[in-house]
Amino acid sequence: MRTAIYAGSFDPPTNGHLNVIEKALGLFDKLIIAIGDNPSKTSYFTHTERIEMLKEITSNLPNIECEIEIDSFKRKFLVDYAREKDAKYIVRGIRDSKNFREERIIFLFNKNRDPIIEPIFVMPDRSVADISSSLVKSLIGYTNWREETIKLVPYFVHERLLKKQFENEYRGTVKGLEKYNIKISENEIKDTLKFLNMTYGVHIRPYHNINHILHMLELANNLVLDDFDMDNNILKYAIIFHDCIDEADNKDGVLESAKVSKKLLNQEWVANLVENIIMATDYSNNAKKEYFAPSKYQKIIMDLDFSQMGYSYKIYSDNTKKIRDEYDHVTDEEWTKGRYNFLNMMLVKEKIFLTDEFKHLEKKAAENILREMKEMETRLVIFNDEKQ
């Protein structure tokens, strides 16, 4: 049996890794994909998470007569591990000439330890040749990183990237609240993350999902809250929970989200402040109030929530379609009239965006809203004619 080892950190697995795996499957009877421990590197994903990702992305590969095993090894030379696994070949992906020179040094070292084991150099396709795990990780956190990294990794891995970054944001926010003597245990953190990952799942909610929350958090991270009584961690905690109960299924979704946010906050004033910030996103009920004067916190979370209204019309319309999908239980007539009234409510306000940080989006948001309303007017006429 021709057995080969393809080893790496796979932190995370990329489209480049997958391309090499697909090429290697046609060369051997068994391919062992092994996660190697590199003491000089700090891992972004845990060992278990990387094992799970590799199993998932290799589970649906074309039916090639090659056995796949996912394994790992620690503090061993790769050539020694290959000998233990009775593998006579080591697969290495070669991205460029620099990479080849590095691999040549490793090849000579391995040959000195075991001359029987042969390296098999695989050139990935041009479209994925420059992708590395380091490149993927270097993009995380920057504006539009989610749109860029989805081009570089398998879809399942991208979902894990979102969840990991969301976890890091949540843990960092909880850590930041410790100065107010707020203590949230590790078990409570894990349980909360499990709940939030479920309720913000991209397969469950097309728009108000983890992508939307991460987008708001990324914008919030770039804000300079210079008011002495404002704290970015309090704002971010409110962002994380503000959509956790789906308003499409529960008309009191915002109120229920606010209640959930308070459960672990043992300082009453912080809990009440977070609740107050979240309630600013109850747009329908706030519009009915005779007087609603939002605080600076409330203005910021509202502007963050609406920020993508001021982007290109393609992004705007794509988001509108996703929101419509969340309300697939209502008729086209109900959706059109409700959406039109909401957009009209946005326009009749003195300003769409209430803070200086987002005023640059005002003009484009107004143009987008007017364009959508104009597109909806024909449908509204048809609905009215049908009733007459």
Shape: elongated
User: What does the radius of gyration come to?
Assistant: 26 Å
- What CATH architecture label of the largest domain applies? Orthogonal Bundle
Order of helices and strands: EHEHEHEHEHHHHHHHHHHHHH
Number of domains: 2
Number of helices: 17
What is the CA-CA span between the terminal residues?
77 Å
Please report which band the strand proportion falls in: under 5%, 5-15%, 15-25%, 25-35%, 35-45% or over 45%.
5-15%
What oligomeric arrangement do these chains adopt?
A: single chain
How many runs of DSSP E, i.e. beta strands? 5
Mean pLDDT reading: 91
Looking at the structure, the CATH topology of the largest domain is Catalytic domain of cyclic nucleotide phosphodiesterase 4b2b
Poorly predicted regions are none
**What percent of residues adopt helix (DSSP H or I)?**
40-55%
**CATH top level assignment of the largest domain:** Mainly Alpha
